[in-house]
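Tutorial, part two.
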Amino acid sequence: METMANKLSLKLLIDHKAHKILFAEASKDVVDFLFGLLLLPIGSIVNLLTKERMVGCIGTIYKSLEQLDVTYLCSSQSRTTLLSPPISETTFLLPSALPCTTKKLYGHCGGYFTEISGTKCPACRMAMTTELQQVNPGSVVRQREVGEGYVKGVVTYTVMDDLTVVPMSTISSITLLNKFHVKGLGSLEEKVVKLGLEEGLELLKASLQSKNVLSDVFLGKKVSQGNVTV
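Running the prediction step on this input gives:
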């Protein structure tokens, strides 16, 4: 969580008169984080937010499968796959901050592998019980150096309250102020908010139920002083 908070931040433009965040300035890392949410399987979203915090009935489906007796399942592995689907390391570009679940794979002679330990190898007929080690494709820092992720880092991005993302420019900022009918600058305040794990999960939750995500997350509740810089 500390690592995430040190790396990601949003510069918010707040209209205190309207009690609303007009828009935010965001770096490549923040936009990669937001776009990476599209890769999350539903089961992983429920797992991250917990059943109790989910809106609608997906949490109920999750709980039903969680509580279903194993005698009714084709395999226990299928329940694990549905309740905790693998999350790609690059989904958030923050593997140290958010959980990343991966399947265990087993082999014996190198030609075949299985998810179920003890399965006989078709080649040598021996039980495949040796857990295979997955290779880390590279650190987040290295990925950014070679230009991976989802968007380019040569520009700053504007993130709207409803999480619309567009490249930022001086003209677009002025246009936005006119769009929101801002007459004076006295009610406006800039505030830099650092994103930690808690804020990331709140953004995910709010994005599923609101059109005013930034305002709901950063104005709807008090953000700790440790995560906000004025």
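The two ends are 21 Å apart (CA to CA). In part three we will examine how such features are distributed along the chain.
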